[in-house]
Amino acid sequence: MDSFKITNFGPINKVDVQLGDLTILLGPQASGKTLFLQMLKLLVDKDHIVQTLARYNYVTNKQPDQILNYYFGDKLSSMWKEDTVVKADGKSYRKSFLMSQSDESAVEEVFYVPAQRILSISDGRPKNFMEYDISSPYVLRNFSETLRLFFQNEIGDDQTVFPLNNRLKGGLKKSFNESIFHGGQVVIDESSGQKKMRMQVGGSSLPFMTWSAGQKEFMPLLMATYCLTGPVIKTINRKQYKYVIIEEPEMGLHPRAIQAVIVQMLEFINAGYKVIVSTHSSVLLEFAWAFKMIQRLPENVRVEALCELFDVSPNTNVTKIFLGVENKELKTYFFNHKKNGVNSLDISSLDVMSENVEESEWGGLSQFATKASDVVSKYMSEYLSEE
After folding, report:
1. Which residues contact 130 (CB under 8 A, 6 or more apart)?
2. Distance, first Cα to last Cα, the chain
3. What sign results for the dihedral spanned by CA atoms 170, 175, 181, 183?
4. Among candidates 364, 179, 176, 172, which has minimal Cα distance to 285?
5. Mean pLDDT of 370-382
6. Of 106, 101, 96, 70, which is closest to residue 242 (Cα–Cα)?
7. Domains along the chain?
8. What is the pTM of this model?
């Protein structure tokens, strides 16, 4: 899929996105980013979703509203109105497409990491699909079930979750350790009668609920990374996926940790996935701007510049990631909530000199930094000059 467009769905008036190798969506809360991403998955994975609901004994009777309620959340089918239109590569889809015969052999193609991912391991273990009620969106239930399968079947005999061999490049493992775990080792503990994660650090064994907010937020994202990297495993076939969606990868993380997550996303792109990210972080936009500028450099210095940007030695295996992504396409869209609903704006150039404020201020993410600089400059020059 190269283009995806939604008209008149929930709060969305018109959102039109051309997908790049990496696509970044930004906008204030409740601006339709999650609905857009969930709809993309519904369109691509409809057959697999219907089959999954049936496997867990959800009764849909091929009724579109029932499927929408089970997918988006209880009683949310009303978001799909009479004039709602969804288009993928120019082909239109109405609500009736949910009634079409499902392919029972369909595989999942969109790996979706939801913003509510912390709920998937809220007590130190991934929950199964049926532990959630109908109010929970399908993407959370399905993500949690995927993590559960990995957690139950793919952790090695030493029961170590981090660092896990063969799942992360050495440079990334080092970055995650230095910025998030600080020498801590995450292991599986069975003393409670269930497999749960604990962190061993400094001679202490810490239960999940005592971890820092950033460590807890990062853990399901790390496990998602395990599912998509390293050797192919039986329970989760990473080769079947074409898209990786990550909502707000920055949650709870220090900027240095966010930088490491960005490098991991670049590895996903290098592996052939189209990556789509929603964010409220200026760090991702700063990377996007720098990446655009670096692509204008001579080819023989682009990788060197990327290594310097991420403080990576040119001699590490992370360099191979940069070799594979230096020419990839990066797209950025701002979701703006206006009186008539949410509309999208392509701000991929990230031109700070643009006359369009939404583009020059990167959808508002650089607005405060610019204002702070202006205010300080104004008052410093006015009052300090009098001394």
Report:
1. 56
2. 62
3. positive
4. 364
5. 77
6. 106
7. 3-155+237-376 (3.40.50)
8. 0.94
